[in-house]
Each structure stands twice: as structure tokens, then as C-alpha cells.
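Thread: Modeling a multi-component assembly for a lab meeting

Hi all, long-time lurker, first post. My supervisor asked me to bring a structural picture of a complex we are working on to next week's group meeting, and I have zero experience with this. I have the sequence lines for every component (287 residues in total). Could someone generate the structure of the whole assembly? Inputs are pasted exactly as I received them:
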Amino acid sequence: MVQIKTVGVVGAGQMGAGIAQVAAQAGLSVLVTDVADAAIERGKGAIKDSLARLVKKGSLSEADAAAAMGRISFGTALTLHAPADLVVEAVSESEALKRKIFGELDLIVRPEAILASNTSSISITRLASATKRADRFIGMHFMNPVPVMKLVELIRGIATADATWAATKALAEKMGKTTTVSKDYPGFLANRILMPMINEAFSALMEGVGSAEDIDTTMKLGCNHPMGPLTLADFIGLDTCLAIMEVLHDGFADPRYRPCPLLRQYVDAGWLGKKSGRGVYRYGEGA
Ligand code: NAD
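Re: Modeling a multi-component assembly
Sure thing. I ran the full set together rather than chain by chain. Output:
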């Protein structure tokens, strides 16, 4: 089984930064790339802030936080990933973008290295076909926020080898996570069940059945969910939610997965949730 010591992370957004942080805290060498310096600076800042919060809470020593930060290298060129044993891609939820990145990574990393995608919903089998290593390709679906959430859903494409699954499972466990396995079906397990609920909450909001606050409170207090579906959608990113609904809709060709027009309209308006300062709710200065 491939021993994973160096992990590459492509994309330094919400998920990429979290994955890099947790991998570094687990003692792995981490290589992080994004398209632009500004995105790298944002990602680096997010990791620093998150580690500082852990230090303040007393769950991490200052020395360990500094050591974790010291294990992460940042850059804008994909070639930074050449020494990686496994590269996990966490760029925006676009199949064309991910395929392009995997096609390039396939030529950059060593033949035995594993390529993994943190995609929420895009077919692992299809993404793997952008490479010549479908047997060393797997879905590694972390949950948001990565430092907090315990689960990593592993998705086996049609050609994913047992050894690839075992090495990736061992890596997730080294990062302190528990894994489940899903077949490569639209939405896998988590989002096939979660996203239709979020979409339904948007429909209830659009139809004026209840206010956003009442929808969220109903699910929080009535169904014991830790946060309401609309708050959760803002947290995930409404663009990501819409992209996942589109994958479910296309993948199953079933109208019950039709994305709610209000969700689409919010995304068209640039109201992407917490990350853009406004989604269903407002954040930051306009809150
Ligand atoms: P995000 O928008 O916060 O980050 C995406 C990052 O990708 C940005 O920093 C962007 O600059 C970068 N990027 C875009 N094009 C790139 C390129 N060509 N090369 C390198 N970097 C590039 O998005 P996110 O929420 O971190 O989501 C990333 C992935 O993780 C998506 O596939 C999403 O479906 C998945 N995911 C998201 C969540 C969630 O709750 N947000 C949970 C699980 C999985």
C-alpha cells in the first residue's frame, strides 16, 4: 500500500484550506496551489486564523500550530505537486475545470501517486477518465468545516483499485476522520440525501410558506438538526448547492431534483452565502 507522506491540495478555498490545515496538523507535508496569489493569501490567512482559534481554545499549542503552518508550502503552479503521494483537488464545482486540472496533474505527479477529488457530486468515473490512472483515482469527500467534521465519504469510481481505496482510507484516518464508502452515483450518499432537503427549503421560502427564520427554526428545533437548511446552504455556498442539484437532476433525469428557481436566482445575483457576505442571510457589515 502506498504510504502517503506528502499531500497536494489544489484550490485554497473553504475546503482546500481546511484539508491542508488538517493534513498539516496530522504531520503530513502539504503542498497547496490556487490560481492567483490573492486566493493563496486568502487560504493562508484562513488556515492561520483557524489554527489561532484552536490555540486560543487551548486545544493546540502555539508550537504545534507553528509547526503545522511550517509544513505547508503554497504556490500558483500545479507543478508544485510533483513530489506528492496523493493530490486532492478542491477547486470550484465545475466538471470542465476539474477535468482540465486532473489531465495536467496526471502528467505532473509520479505514476504511483493517487489523484483524489473532493467533488460534492460529480462522477468520479468521469473525472478519472481525464487521466490515465483510473485505478489510482478516488473521491475523497470532506465535509465543511473540515477541521470540525468527522466524516470523509470515499467514492469508488468503476476502476478504483482496492489498494487506492485502502491507502486513501488510511490517510483519512491519519487525519482523524472516519470514512464511509459510496458507489459512484449522483450525489453519492451525503448530498443525495441532504441537497433535496435544502432545495425543498428554498421552494418553501419561494412559495412564501414560511420565513427563512421559521423554516430554519422548524428544522432545528422540530427535527433536531444542528442548523437549519437555509443557514446550512449559506454555509456550504449557494453556488455549490445549485451545482449539486444540477448534477442530481442531470444524473437521475428525474424532475424531483429540479433546482429551485429561487436558489438559481440567488446564485445569479452573486448571493453565494457566507463566503460572499450575502446569501439567504446577510453576513459581516450588512448583517
Ligand atoms: P471555494 O469557492 O471556497 O474554493 C474554490 C477554490 O478553487 C477558490 O480558491 C478558487 O480560486 C480555486 N480555483 C478555481 N479555479 C482554479 C484553478 N484552475 N486552479 C486552482 N484553483 C482554482 O469552494 P469550496 O467550498 O472550497 O469547494 C471546493 C470543492 O469542494 C467543490 O468541488 C465543492 O463541491 C466541494 N465541497 C464543498 C463543500 C462545502 O460545504 N463548501 C463540502 C464538501 C465538498
